[in-house]
Queue: 2 jobs
Job 1
Amino acid sequence: MISSVLPTYNRAPLAFVKGEGSWLIEADGRRFLDLGAGIAVNTLGHANPELAEVLKAQADTLWHVSNLYKIPAQQALADKLVETTFADTCFFTNSGTEAAELAIKMARKYWYEKGQPEKIEVITFEGCFHGRSTGAIAASGSEKMVKGFGPLMPGFVHLPFGDWDAVAEHVSEKTAAILIEPVQGEGGIRVVPDEALKLLRQIADEKGCLLIFDEVQCGVARTGKLFAHEYAGVIPDIMMVAKGIGGGFPLGAVLATEEAASGMVAGTHGSTYGGNPLGCAIGLKVMEIVSDPAFLAEVNRKAGLFRQKLEGLVADHPDVFEAVRGEGLMLGLKCKVAPADLVAKGYEQGVLTVPAADNVVRLLPALNISDDEITEAVARIDAAASAL
Ligand SMILES: Cc1ncc(COP(=O)(O)O)c(C=O)c1O
């Protein structure tokens, strides 16, 4: 008999009833050091007191109003995002997938309004992940995600990851946008080199298409910059954000330049919940905390410490690990064993990690993880690797 919850997930035999910072706790009191953070969501750890305070205050005041009306909390978060990024304007969603849908719509509408309706294609890269809607799976194109769900939304061109010099020849008069994660998450913590992002910006400018960055997983201070593309010193026309911006509350956003957003006039897009006062109040608090230069400096210091310890771990277990990769606190252990086996051994040691493609185990801790917790985390992964 089918379970009452649609069985689309392969769930671990763990159930948490409480969270405290970087720790998750089962009903019997067993504590797990969480290096997954809800897959890069719990930016400031579980049940963060500052966020809880904002949530409770907002819950006592106003939860939801329709976008038929002005929403001051939404305006405040939009102002903060505009102030701290390349963007001139923002639309709020509840998830990364919805952000992907709008980013694609926005790019197509831009060219339609410019009198070039033939520009509908979006170039994406092997290993990418932009969500599970029909549009987002078509964007990914991977067999695993699209099989059985056709017909797929047309208009995506899938290129290999890494052959950046070949991208220009695939940009045609039909190309609306190039869509890329500056650091692939699900694809296995694959960092797109700064030079490649610069090249994509140049190609987009020269050939006349938009550049969209998907920073749903790598954004919001995860890599040690507020947004990962800042390392390359290039800006996109459109950017997708979600996960970390809500610190655990479902919240996403599409950020854009005024020019790229010019086709999205009243009536062209909407969302019932997107930008509701609860989500935006929390999002604003998260942004205030993580955009502080002192906070970002701490993320980088901790990332350096974590990485150094992980390099030692890789050297100690040459049969289990191949390398450490990633940026900031978005780290991956490239494995010689099946990632799922290491993750499962981690459960026995009380440490939570997340498998990804390309034989990688992801480490995406809360950005305020302590030095002691980093040391403890590496000791627990060490024990898990030894047990393998
Ligand atoms: C880069 C990226 N884009 C989009 C998504 C989809 O986000 P959501 O699951 O919030 O819809 C994800 C989720 O993992 C992601 O990592």
Note: Residues 39, 95-97, 100, 129-131, 181, 185-186, 214, 216-217, 242 surround pyridoxal-5'-phosphate (CB under 6 Å).
Job 2
Amino acid sequence: MTRYVMGVDVGGTKILIGMASADGEVLRERRYPTDTSSNEAILRSVYAAVDDFWMTLTPADPRPAAIGLGLVGGVDHRAGVWKSAVNIPIKNPEPVAHNLQQRYGVPVALDNDVHCSTLAESRLGAGRGVSDFVLISIGTGVSVGIVANGSLVHGAGNYAGEAGHMVVSDDPTVCKCGRIGCVEPLLSGGGIITATRALLPTHPESSLHRWGTGLHAGHVYAAAAEGDPLAVFIADRAVDCIKKMTVNVVNLLNPELVVFSGGALPLARLTSEVIPHLRTTILPITSASLRDVVLAAVHPEKAGLVGACCLAFDLLDQPA
Ligand SMILES: [Zn+2]
């Protein structure tokens, strides 16, 4: 009989829940809003969404054998605790796994969203069968998922892969971590929007004014391609960052495959500049074993949910 698990992807604006089989077939996917007004409101949103999904399963639906959650921010995956989050305010550690396990009587696993996306790419995407690869994610933030010797690398505190805080620039922009020179404020989607908005008042000629509050990184890269001076400044700085960061990551980890993912990638320049730069700049010994550089095969909208389901299957399949 096909086994199904429930996956829960908790992001800053929405909670995506679905059930999946081990081969990635997703059933009954639903989307719920996230109330980020307070620590308590977020937790209420998550528990209410899981409750609604579980309670509305019909007798014809398979029962989930386990639950996996992908959460933004700091997660203690061993203890099943959501420790903290900055963009949505989780200030007090919450034993999410314990609470859900008590309520539904099935095993519960959790991890952070990037580790979940990396797991999804490793099991069902471009990283399938690859023992050493990195997933470079450029979305609202910047991070790197690492698979080494076939296993996801968590680090001592589950913070492995925080490449957004790799220092690569002399630019004076202050990062959220308080330092200067970090990748995050110069390359992430959030950082590009913040930096562009800060400079727009001194660039009345910029075509980017027309996007107002709907501005995103893609608009900046498109305007840069048309020669908008403000956009060129922001985009060149970002592309410089992604080049340096990727070279450092590849020289450090010697992956067989680099997978780029995320909604704030400079897609056109990735092919025309970043990948050629990578090939000519990394150490020849690491280049020899870097087989390919590709885009993620699992859709970014689904990667968190699919990865959360992979976590749940791993929990079911681990030896007793
Ligand atoms: Zn930083």
Note: The longest strand covers residues 26-33.
